[in-house]
Write a structure and sequence with these properties.
The structure holds 2 protein chains of 2 kinds. By secondary structure, chain A is mostly helical. Chain A contains 12 helices and no strands. In chain A, about 75% of the residues lie in helices and about 0% in strands. The two termini of chain B are about 25 Å apart. The chains are: A mainly alpha, B mainly alpha. The interface of A and B includes residues 29, 39, 42, 43 and 198 of A.
């Protein structure tokens, strides 16, 4: 078997383990599905009249507008959960056993990220399904839905890379878990839940320069207006940038862990 | 109540206090989460006050009661998670073989949750005043603190019941999500008339709506007894219900 095929097999196996682990542990699954779904329901029900505000972009419903935010919240928490699970593996010594195995070390990280990608895909499909069931239309059609799902999945990998790099660097689940509040800070200070022009200062200005807003808009536009190449491109470039930085940080943290043993 | 029962309750409250002093980070999530939600939601949904029919022009004032109760709910839920950890670690088994009655063990947990609820409530209030929330008056402040303490006790009973049933920290999401749903499925984000009809129906039958309205009155207007007593009654009812269920679970748990 070629080296590439071996590595792909390792990534696939570790990715599958990661997905199973998440589905078996409610603590890891709840932030990805339960909390974002609950917040989506409460926010659309409670603040649904916001679509009547002057300046709110034309949308079919507030649920349609909020789907991208819910997806983003879910994939960010999926990335964070992946980091926590990797840190737990390090604490329990499982990662040490993988380091001793005759496999490429970086496949250990890629395996975890493959699992995070699968969870991101699941989350995107979950919220699309919820939107469709409760009457939200996807203005971009099948292509728009595919773009939204692809961007959300890629975003999960890029955020998962950040979680993995911190897990590898610190080796402590409690530290990665401590990033949970930060996820919400970044989300609230983006256009995930409301149009930028209607946000209150200083949140509006921060959201304007928050790269996450570009990702959210890339996912939202195909849902609320239709496919717009510029929005998709900006979102893809932002995700690629975050992914490149996070993978670089993960590689450095992995090298540091291998060199120092901790 | 015997003197030794009181001593046991005080010892259990002391133990919870020690955790706060020795592991300061343990209180951080309970304080951070409602504060981040308060600031975040205020920045995001602040312009909702422009809608016709909104009862105040200051969204921070409208939102702060929800964040205080959310902090109390999280604090109570954390008590359940800690109890589940104590069950997994065998600490509760040692308490169960002691001559202390089971209601005393539960009371210690519940009182410690009530006292801890003052930390997030104070932090959220301080932040809220900084961003321009209205001063609710001394009576409004008293109502807010009292209702936060009883909400934390109710949440502690609810989550302790789950911890005693599942005997695992895996039940933590159920504890947190349950309290979050109870507190947010109210007039949390907007007045009843501006909410979507399905959530209006839920909020109307959710007793926590009465509690939110009772805490909110001082921040958005004047304190009135007609707005206060339904909240007291609703909280008393929920505390009695979840208290009875958790006591039943505590009495049934096998050593």
């Amino acid at each position: 078997m070629s080296r590439l095929a071996t590595n792909l097999r390792v990534v696939g196996t570790l990715g599958m383990r990661s997905v199973r682990q998440t589905f078996r542990r409610p603590q890891l699954m709840a932030p990805i599905v339960v909390f974002p779904t609950l917040l989506l329901a409460i926010q659309t029900g409670g603040a649904g009249s916001a679509v009547d505000l002057p300046g709110f972009p034309p949308v079919q419903s507030f649920l349609q507008f909020m789907l991208a935010g819910a997806m983003m919240q879910s994939v960010m928490l999926a990335g964070n959960s992946g980091g926590i699970a990797l840190a737990v593996d390090i604490e329990m010594g499982f990662t040490d056993r993988l380091f001793a195995a005759p496999i490429s070390r970086f496949t250990i990280v890629l395996g975890r990220l493959a699992g995070t990608a699968a969870l991101g895909l699941f989350a995107a499909l979950w919220f699309l399904a919820i939107g469709l069931i409760f009457g939200a239309e996807i203005e971009g059609g099948v292509l728009g839905a595919l773009i939204a799902v692809a961007l959300a999945t890629a975003a999960a990998v890029s955020i998962g890379g950040v979680g993995s790099s911190i897990a590898l660097r610190t080796g402590r689940a409690s530290i990665v878990q401590g990033l949970f509040p930060l996820v919400f800070v970044v989300l609230f200070l983006s256009t995930a839940f409301f149009p930028e022009d209607l946000m209150v200062e200083p949140a509006r200005t921060i959201a304007k320069y928050n790269p996450l807003s570009l990702v959210v808009e890339g996912i939202r536009e195909p849902i609320i207006t239709g496919v717009n190449a510029a929005d998709v491109l900006w979102a893809a470039l932002t995700i690629a940038g975050i992914m490149a930085v996070s993978l670089l940080l993960s590689a450095r943290a992995l090298r540091h862990r291998l060199a120092t043993g901790g | 109540m015997r003197r030794q029962d009181i001593a046991t309750i005080v010892a259990l409250v002391d133990r919870a206090k020690n955790e706060l002093l020795r592991v300061p980070g343990a209180a951080v999530p309970g304080v951070l989460a409602p504060t981040i939600f308060f600031l975040g939601l205020n920045g995001v949904f602040g312009s909702l006050t422009q809608l016709t029919g909104f009862t105040t022009d200051n969204y921070a004032s409208f939102l702060v009661p929800v964040s205080i109760l959310q902090g109390a709910g999280f604090t109570g839920a954390a008590t359940g998670v800690n109890l589940a950890r104590d069950i997994e670690g065998g600490w509760l088994d040692r308490l169960l073989v002691s001559p202390a009655p089971r209601w005393v063990l539960l009371t210690g947990l519940v009182i410690s949750a009530s006292l801890r609820a003052f930390i997030p409530a104070t932090f959220v209030l301080a932040v809220a005043f900084l961003v321009g929330a209205h001063w609710p008056g001394l009576d409004g402040l008293l109502i807010a603190y009292a209702m936060a303490a009883v909400t934390a006790a109710t949440a502690a009973c609810y989550s302790s019941g789950l911890a005693l049933h599942y005997k695992s920290q895996s039940a933590a999401p159920l504890m947190q999500a349950g309290m979050l749903a109870l507190i947010l499925a109210t007039t949390a984000y907007a007045p009843l008339e501006l909410m979507q009809s399905w959530l209006q129906d839920v909020a109307r039958v959710n007793p926590m709506t009465l509690v939110v309205d009772a805490v909110r009155q001082g921040f958005v207007g004047e304190i009135a007894w007609e707005e206060t007593w339904p909240g007291i009654l609703a909280l008393a009812g929920m505390l009695a219900l979840f208290g009875a269920l958790s006591l039943r679970a505590m009495r049934r748990i096998a050593m």
